[in-house]
Amino acid sequence: DFPAKLSDTKNEKTSIKQTEKSAKMGGKPEKYTVKHVERAARISDTSARVPRASSKTVRPAQSFERFVRVRAAGVEIQRGTRNVHISGRIASRVGQTVSVAAQQIFGWIAAGGWIAVLLILVICVFGAAAGIYGGGAVSHAELPISAEVYAYQPVIAEYAAKYGISEYIALIEAVMMQESGGQGLDPMQASECGYNTKYPNTPGGITDPVYSIDCGVHELADCLQAAGVQNPADLEHIKLALQGYNYGSAYISWALRNDGGYSPENAFEFSENMKAQLGTSVYGVPEYVPHVLRYYTYGYLFGGSLLGNQAIVSIAAGEIGYREGAGGYTKYGAWYGLPNDQWCAMFVSWCAEQCGYIRAGICPKLSYTPDMVRWFQSRSQWYDRTVTPPAGAYILFDWDGDGGANHVGLVEYVEAGRVHTIEGNSSNMVRRNSYPLGDTNILGYGMPKYP
Asked: 359: which of 13, 64, 311, 406 is 20 to 30 A away, CA to CA?
């Protein structure tokens, strides 16, 4: 364990600790009573929602008087007569969704499904190689989520926690992206939701974006529970939940009873049945599921964009803001077996574990930074500070100038001659730092051979 500087812009010194955590991914949403309903249909540019009558009295949402202060450039939210200004950098994307799917990939390999997985990996490697390794500098992963949706991430996180679906933030963002792109006063298009008890149950009735998110997230939590979704990678049941969010949860029980789950065919059939029953020309959006999934992290993970180096970066970004507890305790150290020890190396090892890379032999599981250097050197994956590293590279630091490693982080991207990192145990927390390329405090880079 060695003393370390926090960044090239700080003179402050701290003890850099290295550990890892016990990760529990893919928890089930809390149980909520699912209200089976019927909704009258409407047409929308992006999707349709249908009103329902609940069999039970729903709780009115709390009134929120505070302004929403979120980081995202150039976004303005109208809350009734208030203007909520949002400025600064876009908040970090929660990366937990990537971990479960990545672990499933390697689980498939172990179970003998290596041929299909190999095809996925070949597509990913050839499709991403030029952008990731071909040009030196690496930019941010490009995800099809608007700045307006990103701006709501803290609010989404608040209500996801409230309704027990914190691990589904990326899915909520995808739903919002499809419903509104984050625009307007009802970004979750929740006016016709049964939980809306404050505003008219008509399209566009809600005029408070925060209340819209409250209602919409509550509704989605019910749908995830009713559909039996196990984790953020459980796409089979997520599809059922999403179509239920659009049609109303009565679709979920109907689809389970008739076909055992969602299918594009029964989504169309249900819409036709409801149109005939209600005498309307439109009922929901039969293609709602693929429309939402194009914005969902997993659609891109299996398409290649987040597999490999960007997967581990996404996991790390999802941990930004985590702070060690009393006595230096961290979940990363608890996972490793050293809950109160120095934890920068254990943090990056934990991130690799969430992607399945340790079990696959792609990344090391280590708590001591000099051992990391030796691990990469033994595999000819070690590079000195003069190179321009790709995203996902391990960046090792030598604060003392003695030629030994005493801190480690992950490269997030390189831009304008600076390497931007995500580091554990920087000021006793997970946070971003940046350094000039070739900085003398950088010992070198370990570059795993990501799939």
From this structure: 406
Asked if residue 302 is part of any domain, the answer here is no
Q: Which CATH number characterizes residue 417's domain?
A: 3.90.1720
Helices (H), 91-205: 96-110, 114-133, 147-151, 153-162, 169-179
Tokens read off for 312: 């581990």
User: What confidence tens digit (pLDDT) does each residue in 241-256 have?
Assistant: 999 999 999 999 999 9
pTM: 0.43
Strand intervals (E) in 1-67: 3-5, 13-15
Nearest alpha carbon to residue 405 among 353, 345, 363: 345
What range defines the domain where residue 420 resides?
3-25+325-446
Say how many domains are in the chain. Answer: 2
Asked whether the beta carbons of 236 and 169 are under 8 A apart, the reply is: no
Question: What are the percentages of helix, strand and coil residues in the chain, rounded to 5?
Answer: 40, 15, 50
Mean pLDDT of 317-341: 94
